[in-house]
Amino acid sequence: MSVKLVKEEIEKFLGRQEAEVLCIRGKWGVGKTYTWAKQLEAAQQAKVVKRPRYSYVSLFGVNSLDELKLAIFENVITLSDGVKKADLETLDAFVSSKVGSWRKLTRIAQSLPIVRNLVGGDATALVSFMTIRDQVVCIDDLERRGQRLDVRDVLGLISYLCEQRNCKVVLILNDEQLEGDAKRTFEKNLEKVAELSFVYEPSSTESVEIAITALDQASRFVAERCTTLGITNIRVVKRLVHFVDAIKPLLTEYDAEVFKAAIGSIVLFSWSHDQPEEAPSLTFLKGKTQDKFGLKRKEEMPLNEAAWNTLLEAYGYIWTDDLDIVLMEGICDGYFDPERVKKAAQAIHEQAVAAKADGSFEEAWRRYHDSFADDQAEVLDGIYASFMKNFKYITPTNLNGTVSLFKELGRPEQADEMLEHYMANRNEGREFFDLAENPFGDNVNDPDVRAAFNEKAAQVEEKRDFPAIMLSIKDGWSEDQINALATAPIEEYRKAFKSHSGPELRRMLANVFQFDRISNASDAMREISRRAREALVLIGTESAINARRVSRFGVKIEQAGNAADPAEDKK
C-alpha cells in the first residue's frame, strides 16, 4: 500500500468514534512508525482524534505482560498538549487528573482481588493498568519483543484494551521477521483481533523524500541514485547521506566528477552493506574488477549475477576502481581514511580532466556495452584510438581487459602494440609493476600482460619512500616494507624524523618502535628499532633540547660539561 493510501486509512481510523484495532505491517526502515506518528500529529492538530490521550510503546526488549502494561501507563500523554514524548511531568499530570490520589487508588487496588487476578502484577502495575481506557495506544516492534513475551499474550492484551477499555489500538511490526510458533500464532489470530490490516510498501521515491529533505545539488543527486536502485529503507538512506557528507570535504580540491562518482559508489555500497538480502553483495561488487569488460562467458555467469549486472549497468556502475575499494572499506569500517581517499581520488581526477580534454577511455568502452549493433570494427577502432591517447590514465586491469578483447576479436597485432606502448610510456616505480603488491594484481590474467609487468618490475629500481613506509606500518606490514626499513641507512631515519613533526612524527616513532614490544620479533624488525634509535642519538647530539627530547625514548646523550642539563647551561 502506498504512503498516500496509508495516510488516508490512518486518518479515517483516528476519526472514527468506535474502539478498533489497526495493524500496519512492513519491512524494517520503510517508515511505518514515522508515517503513523506524522499522521497522528496532523490529526491531533486538526482536532479530529476521537480519544484524549495516547501511549506509544516499543516492545523491543519487553519480556513480560506486566512490563508492557506498565510501559503503556508510563508513556501516556494528553493529545491536547501535542504529540510529544512522555516524561515525568506528563505522567504526573495524567495521574493527578485521572485518579486524584495515587496512594488512595493503590490501597483500593490492593483490596480488590478480582482486579488483581484480572490484570496480574503488583499494586503499582494494578494502579497503572486501571487508568488505561478511552485512549489511543500504539504497540510497535512486535517482532523484537523479549524472548519471554508471547505473541498470543500481546494480541490478547490488544483485544482487551479495545473491547473492554474502549481504546483504539495500533499494532506496528515487520511480520516477515516473525518465525516458528510466533508467526503461526500471529497469522492465525490477527484477523480475530484487528479490524483493519495492511502492508505498508512505499515506493523508493516516497521513502527518499522522507529521508532527504535538503534541496542542494548533491542531495538531489543522492536522491536520484537511491531511487534508481529502488532503495526504500529510510535508515539506509540516512546512513548513506552521512557518508556522503563525510566524503565531501575530502574531495573539494578535485574535479566535480570525482565527488559525483563517489556519491554513486557510496549509495551502492551502503545499500549492499546494510541490506545484503536485497542488494548485490560487496564481494560481488569487488569482483567487478575482474570482469569489467564483460568478457566472462555467458554460461559461466550465475543467473543472479546476470540480473545484478543489468541493474548496475542501468545505474551506470560498470566496474570497481581503486577509489571504490577505498570507499567500500570506509563504509564497512564506519569512517574514511583521508590519506587513502585523496591518493585514490587523484587518479580519478586526472582521468576526468583528460576526458574533458580529449574523450575518455570509459566513453569509448560505452559503445561496446550500450549497443547490439553490427559495429565491431568501429568499436575496436574507437577503443584503440582512445587507449593510445589516454594510456597514462589506464589501470593495469583496464589494460588486461583491452588486450584480451582485441585478441579474442581477431586483432592480436593491435593488442601487442597497445601493450608495448603502455609499458614503454608508463614511468611509475617498481611498486606499480609488481603485481604481487598491486591490490588489483590478481585481476591481470592475460599471460602476455603478466609477463610484461614482471619484466618491467625487474628492470625498474624501486623508489622507496621511507617516511611513507614508516607511517604505513601501524596495523600491518609486508616483508618488503620490513626489509626496506631494516636496510635503510641511519641517515635516512634521521632525515625522516627531522622533516616531520606533530601527529605524523609521533605516529612514525610509534610505528618503528612497536617491534620492541613484540616478543617474537624477527632480526629485521629488531634492526629497525636499532637503526631508529641510532638516528635519535644523532639528533640528540645536535642540541641540549634535543638531547632532552630523545631521552624519553630511552636514548641517553652524554655531552661534555653535561650540556643537556639546563642548570649547567647557566654556568
Structure description:
This protein has 4 domains: 200 residues, P-loop containing nucleotide triphosphate hydrolases (Rossmann fold), CATH 3.40.50.300; 156 residues, no CATH class; 105 residues, no CATH class; 104 residues, no CATH class. Helix content is 60%, strand content 5%. Helix 10 packs across helix 12. The radius of gyration is 34 Å and the shape is extended.
**So, CATH architecture of the largest domain?**
3-Layer(aba) Sandwich
Structural class of the helices, strands and pairings?
mainly alpha
Largest sheet: 6 strands, mixed
Instruction: Tell me, briefly, the overall form.
Output: extended
Strand tally is 6
State the distance separating the first and last CA atoms.
Answer: 89 Å
Which bin fits the share of residues in helices?
55-70%
According to CATH, what is the class of the largest domain? Alpha Beta
Count of spatially separate domains: 4
Q: CATH topology of the largest domain, anyone?
A: Rossmann fold
Low-pLDDT ranges = 86-112, 114-121, 561-571
What is the assigned CATH homologous superfamily of the largest domain? Answer: P-loop containing nucleotide triphosphate hydrolases
